[in-house]
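Weekly modeling sync, notes
Attendees: S.R. (lead), two postdocs, one rotation student

Agenda item 3: backlog of single-chain predictions. S.R. asked that every request posted to the team notebook include the full sequence so nobody has to chase files. The rotation student volunteered to paste the first one in as an example of the format we agreed on. Action items at the bottom.

Example entry:
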Amino acid sequence: MAQIIHFDEIDSTNTYLKNNCPQLADGTVVCADRQTAGRGRFDRKWISQDGGLYFSVLVKPQKTDFLPNFTQLMAVCVCTAAEQLGAKAWLKWPNDVLAEGKKLCGILSEAVVTASGISGVVIGVGVNIAQENLAHVGQPAISLKELGINITKQDFLQKVLTLFWRDYPDVAQRGFAVIRQAYEERFPYIGKQISVKNGAAPVSGTVKGVSPRGTLLLNTAQGPEEIYIGDLIV
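Predicted structure, as returned to the notebook:
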């Protein structure tokens, strides 16, 4: 594990690591108290309020077979860290951590692509730690403080990173299979009817589970479907 770089304010921790990837060590972490241009999946704006934990991790795996699974590993780690503090948290495929049906954490992973290929992956994380009155951020959200849990951003970051570095080497070599059981234990939608928005029209069906690759398995009226990307709509 390499150094942790802290900023009071930055445009985006993901952008910093992507722009500086060549000269930064594998495992470098950047965290910030505030982001002025934070973003989520599909270029959605991530509102980075004071009291939240915003950090990104740079990894430079030798194999590029399992890059999407790093997002899911981080989701399991954040969920587990929250559980260890007494929160009843769960996962919403592929990259959200929820509590009381509201968003506690979002994750965005981005590959660093050069002329010679993929030189690294940046895993960006936003966790609601000590904010209050989060209703105005554009979607139902909740913080650890609102769940009755008081912890510093630094302590929660260390809990998450300890869990992440424990399992990352195995996931980098063997993929989602390493964490599949842990993921599905925290994924309460198996057997439920849901829709996934991943294109022009949502795909609806009953969740069968999560595949060994980390994709979502649905039983639809047209037959089995394997979903690689999208937004789960309950």
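Discussion: group reviewed the output briefly. The domain at 193-233 is CATH 2.30.30.100 (SH3 type barrels.).
Action items: rotation student to repeat for the remaining queue; S.R. to check formatting next week.
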